[in-house]
Write a structure and sequence with these properties.
Length: about 110
Amino acid sequence: QIHEHELSLARYVIKQMKEIDGIEIYNEHTDTGIISFNLTDVHPHDAITFFDQDNICMRAGHHCAQLVIKYLNVPATLRASFYLYNDKEDCDRFIDSLKRARTFFTEMGF
């Protein structure tokens, strides 16, 4: 049941992420609650600062997968993780923050 909960939240979020321009999802067909992505043309460490200031807890970096990062030809990725303690309200807060981040960086010229 926990695994199904994770998957349902990840699918819910990915579906909405795909509707936002300028988002690159690297594991669209994930079988976990982990979503790796980037905002197009925005360094992940710049983006993570935005999310941090918006009280969205995520990670940015190589995630112990340097070969994957090299294969993707990106400096790093953003990683959102959903688990048992998350609900759709958390997902909606994340999507709202993601939309604001995309707008912010677009207005900044990224």
